[in-house]
Amino acid sequence: MQTIHVADTAFVGGGRSVHAVAVDAGLIVAMGTYEEMAAARPRARVRRWPGLLTPGLRHPQAAKLLESAYHPDPREADQLGTEPLTGEALAALEMDEARWGASARRGLQRLLRHGVTAVCGPFTRPAVRTAVARSGLYVRDVSESGGGAEREALTLDPFKGYSLNALLDRSLTVGGTADLAVFDVPVEDDPARMLRLHGAGTCVATVLGGRLVYRRA
After folding, report:
1. What percentage of the chain reaches a pLDDT higher than 70?
2. Is the pTM of this model over 0.85?
């Protein structure tokens, strides 16, 4: 079934006025205004989102986030909190492959909630590598992150320390894979500035290969 994703605007080059993307069988089949999309595809499902629609993001720090940080189980929140644990806090935990795998699965879900559709490797821990493979996220070489890390501190929000162009995994093109993210940010100003100012935590939807894999409640 075809789906039309509609946002306030979309990050597309060439000066085009685009705020709707039509998706079918995992691919982008058309882009333009909602009126154009709806007229050509009257039976398509319509998903409306606030803010800015962009290509899915590529996270340059994913390997460190998944292999050098522990993502607590919600049931551990009272004891460990909710943020990734590193350094001495990580060293104090008894970590085995099973626990690393569970942590990685939670970390991957958190990345999806930040609009991430691709992660930079390589991944050396077997349990983490398995979790990444099963997630469906694309694995990229860290050299594809637009010049390497600009920030040493680990963060789930890739806009904290990386330029927008360094994070976009693919461009929005007709015939391309439908990997999308939508961020509830103001659209009247420069998109890169607004995303950096408000952060990837404003993500309201992530689409991976045409599948809606995250939507904000």
Report:
1. 93
2. yes
